[in-house]
Amino acid sequence: MMHSQQPQHRSTRLKFGRWRNKLACLFVAMLLAGNTVPATMASASAGTDGRAAETKRVAIVIDDFGNGMTGTAEMMKLPFPFTVAVMPFMPTTRADAETAHKLGHDVIVHMPMEPNKGKREWLGPGALTTDLSDSEIRKRVEAAIDNVPFAVGMNNHMGSKVTADERAMRIVLAVCKERGLFFLDSRTTFKTVVPKVANELGVPLLSNHVFLDDVYSVQHIAKQIGVLRKYLEEHENCVAIGHVGPPGKKTAAVLLQSTPVLRENAVIVKLSDLVQRTDEHHILP
């Protein structure tokens, strides 16, 4: 008798999970439209699973700070610790890094790197390109770190070409090791050599698992929150990247409204907390 009831029980749980995800998307859309979310809807989504939250970790990284981008103020008001990736040599580089640090967030250098496709002017000042000499790459990485106060790590801005170039990344990661910084591989190319080189040099490495706002719509961002939650079902840690700029206010609103749902699945942490969970030379998948 018990065996015959189990499939029906699993089906009920799956249906409830799908219903709850749809509900979360609905009240995020209502929030952005300026409507009030009914109390019954909010409470239906706000339950917590203490056991999952105790063992799982999710780190939210927001890229492209440093240029007074749309959504900056909204991101800084999020009610959980996250990681602020700040581009060097930009108008609000120092101000954004200082604000994030005062609020208790991690600050990392959002290092502009050459992509396989795209305009060079999109990179901003001090960018790394594969035609630079070894000494110039080192000089630019060191200058970028010096320009972003309170930086504890680095990740790549764009960079599909540079992160696949072993010569360039060996220099970048060597400087990170010298300065005591970890590196987050944003995974803008499947040809990345970052894990190989970081492992050889002993640089603490994290990797991005989910881009939240690669499509600039509330519906897509809410869907990516679901992808994040699905990833956590089979993994202890998840890193997700969003952005200020064109999707900034939408991403901030979805993250704000999704905070209870995220906390059902994991503890929301900074990248440095994930690094501390690992052994000194262990590379997170």
What report would you give on this structure?
- With 285 residues, the chain is of the alpha/beta class.
- The chain is 47% helix and 17% strand.
- The chain has helices at residues 2-32, 39-45, 50-55, 72-76, 93-102, 134-147, 166-179, 194-201, 218-232, 248-265, 271-276; strands spanning 57-65, 83-86, 106-113, 151-158, 182-185, 205-207, 210-211, 237-243, 267-269.
- Strands 1, 2, 3, 4, 5, 6, 7, 8 and 9 form a nine-stranded parallel sheet that branches.
- Helix 6 (134-147) links the parallel strand 3 (106-113) and strand 4.
- Helix 1 (2-32) runs antiparallel to helix 9 (218-232), helix 7 packs across helix 8 (194-201) and helix 9 packs parallel to helix 10.
- The longest helix has 31 residues, at 2-32.
- Mean pLDDT is 85; it is low at 1-17, 31-49 and 279-285.
Task: Please state the average pLDDT score.
Answer: 85
Q: What is the β-strand count?
A: 9
Order of helices and strands: HHHEHEHEHEHEHEEHEHEH
What profile does the largest beta sheet have? Answer: 9 strands, parallel
State the secondary-structure class: alpha/beta
- Helix amount: 40-55%
Stretches with pLDDT under 50, minimum 5 residues: 1-17, 31-49, 279-285
Q: What is the gyration radius calculated from CA atoms?
A: 20 Å
Strand content: 15-25%
Given the structure, what is the number of helices?
11
Distance between the termini: 42 Å
Overall shape: it is globular
